[in-house]
């Protein structure tokens, strides 16, 4: 789950300070798919970064997957991202030198070695994740040989490797054609039904149509 | 924080992604490592050869009679038992061993047993014998093997270790004698001689007796130009041939510590004796030349390693700037800033390791080429080493460690820059 209370985020623009988020309150329960819509520059991505423990310089209270973000050091926030948060980006953000399978393995590689920390086991789990998004046969392909839809499904498989409690997606269908976008939206819905808290930032109606709730972010405030 | 295997996996992936850049940097590290290993190996090899040529013991002071002496006025002059006792009692002296040259001629006219070849017909050698204290060579012979023998037994001798080299490289080929195989034990070899016989007409004694000399050991403490026998044997032969009690030719004083040598030498001179520093001074000069030359070459090699580190720093800085987004993605997936720092450091270390290993191998190959060229081009002189290079295991370890450390040092800046990447801002 995600719980934000009074979250305010300011950026410094030269001498003046600009508030991108102004006292945002948000709850995303397990099993919910919440869509945030709003114009460009309204702070949607910043909200995702706060909820995903990527951004720490904010005011207010944020609790993600049962962990209060306030006071966590860099290592603890990294561990939380690794174990509980999955990210999907509009531009996929796959590492070009790695194969699809290796990209999916990354969260497992970055995890502190434990009982499930062996490379072979991480590889097997990554294959399962690719199978789940329908790309088992494209495991060894580099991102450059994948279509946009396939790349986003690889990114989704990567986000799912750690079986996260929270999935954060930033314009996940922005670079996809209609069919690929529909596939991704269907996968998001399946994940939400499976108990994952899914928060999607989008300006596309087809995404918000699939959401259980749609919230509008405007002037840094959620409405 | 990610585990070491994960960090290495990610560093390896980054290096594979830029194989060409990694290879260029590894070549830079390789050149530095090869130069370092090769120059140090050359210094060690030449130094070892020089020590074989001039095996000076840092604790020995060779005392000889002064060329101009006031004799009893200053207490110097004759090197006799009294002088030896006073030398032994000097502060810092641990022992004093006199040498007594044999005043009776000794000649050999046939080869030593087991070393036979085509001994030139009619050839007779005059052998200079010098009596030495058995304690001087105690470390080089079996206990009790170097003492005045009972009648009928061969006289034990000790030869300079360097004499074997001179024999092998000059005498043996000149006289068509068999060379000594490397590592062969010569101890026990006997040489028939005639005591009292001189190759100089009219210089032989009235009594000439056949005798055998048996090699008891090889030592760096006996003179190169003489055959060392027990000093009691010399005294006995002097009595038998009526030579009286000649003075000692030289006394070897052993200092308790190397740092006692200067004060000991000064005290010897104050006693009115001279100190023979010819060989020691030459050894020290050669050692200094070798050390200074090696030091300069090593400095050059370390500079090359430093330049390699700078090249790696520059390349990794560019690499970090170019993949800031990838590093931010890794942070989004669970990498802490410390993990990102370790990934870049591991990339540097891997480049240094590859370069160091290749450099150490390259140095071995170049050394082999150098030795082959030396064997072909240089004459087969005594003390020419089989190899001018020495590669002790620590040197190879150093040859790998230095480029690794240099590469890590070069990666420190880029790694810190990578750890400062703000993922939220970079991914926005």
In brief:
The complex is a heterodimer of chains A (223) and B (428). Chain A is of the alpha/beta class and 223 residues long.
Protein architecture, described:
The complex is a heterodimer of chains A (223) and B (428). With 223 residues, chain A is of the alpha/beta class. Chain A has a single domain (2-222), classed as Rossmann fold. Chain A is 35% helix and 27% strand. Chain A has helices at residues 44-51, 74-84, 100-110, 119-132, 148-160, 178-193, 205-210; strands at residues 2-13, 16-28, 33-37, 59-64, 67-68, 85-88, 166-170, 197-201, 213-218, 221-222. Chain A has a six-stranded mixed sheet. In chain A, helix 4 crosses helix 5 and helix 5 (148-160) runs parallel beside helix 6 (178-193). The longest helix of chain A is centred in the C-terminal third of the chain and has 16 residues, at 178-193. In chain A, 51% of the residues are buried. The mean pLDDT of chain A is 89. By secondary structure, chain B is α+β, with helices and mostly antiparallel strands. Chain B has two domains: 4-55 and 283-427, no CATH class; 60-277, no CATH class. Chain B has helices spanning 4-17, 19-53, 81-88, 161-175, 231-240, 261-270, 278-322, 324-332, 337-377, 393-419, 423-427, and strands at residues 60-65, 93-101, 106-108, 125-126, 129-132, 155-160, 190-195, 209-219, 227-230, 250-255, 273-275. In chain B, the strands form two sheets. Chain B has a six-stranded mixed sheet. Chain B has a five-stranded mixed sheet with strand order 4-3-7-8-6. In chain B, helix 2 packs antiparallel against helix 7 (278-322), helix 2 (19-53) crosses helix 9 and helix 9 (337-377) runs antiparallel to helix 10 (393-419). The radius of gyration of chain B is 32 Å and the shape is elongated. The mean pLDDT of chain B is 86. Classes of the chains: A alpha/beta (223), B alpha+beta (428).
């Amino acid at each position: 789950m995600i719980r934000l209370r009074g979250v305010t985020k300011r950026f410094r623009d030269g001498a003046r300070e600009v508030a991108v988020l102004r006292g945002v309150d948000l709850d995303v329960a397990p099993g919910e798919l919440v869509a945030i819509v709003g114009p460009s520059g309204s702070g949607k991505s910043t909200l995702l970064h706060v909820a995903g423990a990527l951004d720490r310089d904010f005011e207010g209270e944020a609790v993600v997957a049962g962990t209060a973000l306030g006071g966590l050091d860099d290592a603890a926030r990294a561990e939380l991202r690794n174990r509980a948060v999955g990210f999907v980006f509009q531009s996929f953000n796959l590492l070009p030198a790695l194969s699809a399978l290796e990209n999916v393995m990354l969260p497992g590689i970055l995890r502190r070695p434990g009982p499930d920390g062996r490379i072979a086991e991480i590889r097997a789990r990554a294959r399962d994740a690719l199978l789940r998004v329908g790309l088992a046969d494209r495991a060894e392909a580099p991102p450059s040989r994948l279509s946009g839809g396939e790349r986003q499904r690889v990114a989704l498989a990567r986000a799912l490797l750690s079986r996260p409690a929270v999935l954060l997606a930033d314009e996940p269908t922005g670079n996809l054609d209609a069919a690929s976008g529909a596939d991704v939206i269907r996968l998001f819905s399946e994940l939400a039904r499976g108990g994952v808290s899914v928060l999607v930032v989008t300006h596309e109606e087809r995404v918000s149509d699939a959401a259980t709730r749609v919230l509008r972010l405007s002037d840094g405030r959620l409405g | 924080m990610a585990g070491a295997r994960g960090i290495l996996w990610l560093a390896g992936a980054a290096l594979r992604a830029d194989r060409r850049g990694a290879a260029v940097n590894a070549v830079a590290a390789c050149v530095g490592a090869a130069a370092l290993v090769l120059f140090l190996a050359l210094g060690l090899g030449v130094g070892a050869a020089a020590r074989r040529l001039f095996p000076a013991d840092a604790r020995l002071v060779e005392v000889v009679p002064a060329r101009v002496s006031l004799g009893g006025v200053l207490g110097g002059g004759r090197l006799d038992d009294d002088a030896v006792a006073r030398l032994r009692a000097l502060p810092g002296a641990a022992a004093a061993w006199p040498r007594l040259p044999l005043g009776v001629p000794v000649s050999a006219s046939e080869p030593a047993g087991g070393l036979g070849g085509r001994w030139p017909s009619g050839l007779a050698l005059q052998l200079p014998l010098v009596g030495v204290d058995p304690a001087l060579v105690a470390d080089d012979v079996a206990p009790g093997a170097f003492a005045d023998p009972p009648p009928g037994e061969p006289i034990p001798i000790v030869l300079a270790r360097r004499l074997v080299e001179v024999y092998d490289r000059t005498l043996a080929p000149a006289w068509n004698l068999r060379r000594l195989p490397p590592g062969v034990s010569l101890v026990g070899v006997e040489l028939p001689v005639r005591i009292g016989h001189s190759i100089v007409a009219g210089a032989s004694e009235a009594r000439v007796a056949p005798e055998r000399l048996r090699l008891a050991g090889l030592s760096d403490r006996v003179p190169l130009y003489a055959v060392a026998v027990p000093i009691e044997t010399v005294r006995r032969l002097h009595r038998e041939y009526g030579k009286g009690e000649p003075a000692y030719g030289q006394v070897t004083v052993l200092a308790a510590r190397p740092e006692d040598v200067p004060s000991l030498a000064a005290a010897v001179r104050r006693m009115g004796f001279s100190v023979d520093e010819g060989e020691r001074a030459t050894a020290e000069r050669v050692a200094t030349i070798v050390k200074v030359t090696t030091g300069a070459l090593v400095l050059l090699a370390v500079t090359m390693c430093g330049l390699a580190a700078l090249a790696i720093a520059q390349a990794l800085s560019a690499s970090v700037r170019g993949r800031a987004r990838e590093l931010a993605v890794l942070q989004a997936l669970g990498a802490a800033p410390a993990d990102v720092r370790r990934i870049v450091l591991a990339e540097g270390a891997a480049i240094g390791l590859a370069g160091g290993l290749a450099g150490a191998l390259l140095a071995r190959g170049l050394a082999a080429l150098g030795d082959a060229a030396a064997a072909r081009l240089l004459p087969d002189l005594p003390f020419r080493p089989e190899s001018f290079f020495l590669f002790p295991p620590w040197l190879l370890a150093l040859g790998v460690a230095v480029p690794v450390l240099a590469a890590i040092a070069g990666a420190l800046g880029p790694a810190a820059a990578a750890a400062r990447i703000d993922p939220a801002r970079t991914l926005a």
